[in-house]
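Reagents: none. Just compute today. LAQU0S06e01596g1_1.
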Amino acid sequence: MLRCRAFGRSILRYNYKRFNSSVKPEALKTNKLEDIPGNFIGKLPEKLISEGNGFESTTAENQIDTLRCYERLLRSGFTPKQSTAAIELLLQTLNEEFFAEYNNKFLRKTELDTQSHLFNAAETELRYAIQVSREAALNEQNLKILQLHRGLHLAHDELNEQFINLLKKDSRVDFNDHKIENTLLHRNINLTIKDCNHKIGTRIIGDIKSEIENLRWQTTRSGLFAVLGLVFFIMSGVSISKRLALENEKPVEVVLHTIEPEEDLQQSEGLESEVEE
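Predicted 3D structure written out:
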């Protein structure tokens, strides 16, 4: 019985080594996106377990070298029939006591552990792929956001530039309009000033001419009066000088008159004055 148990442990070690040799290439695969199958996401855990590289059930006939055991029994002194019966009994005992439990429990547990390990590896691989794809999508979205921000800044700069150019054009148009208005206003002011100057000059010249005419008329009138006065004085002087000359040249005559009444005297004086005129 101890030999059977030791033999069972050797079989377990053999199967475990075979399991490790079959699992390690799968476990050592790199977590790359291109290593993931195309239909990996659609597979369920039960499907993954059912598609695993499971261990096949075995029997004692497949694991024990019966010929070697038979020869050893013969060398130990057993007869051929005894050796055959012992080997059959050993195989039956191993199948009933060990390989039945081995096939029902250990292989299933090993298969479940293997599939669990494969599922965990696939889950890790899937998480890594999701993380990588998420980071790639996040980086792509960040790049798009940066591009959008850059485009927004460029559009904002272009809009500001267009707005500044529009303001410049509007300011130039307003400046030209104000310049034209100022030019027209300046011309109108100059025309108004010239008109005022002309009116003022005309009025001043008219007033001066009227004053000059008045002054000329007054001067002429004063001159005429002065000339008339001078002529009158000259004529008066001439008449007086003639009268005095006549009086000086006239001989002195003594006339005796009788005293006449006052009326006759007044008449004689009036005649003399008329003669003098």
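The longest helix spans residues 80-249.
Action item: order primers for follow-up constructs.
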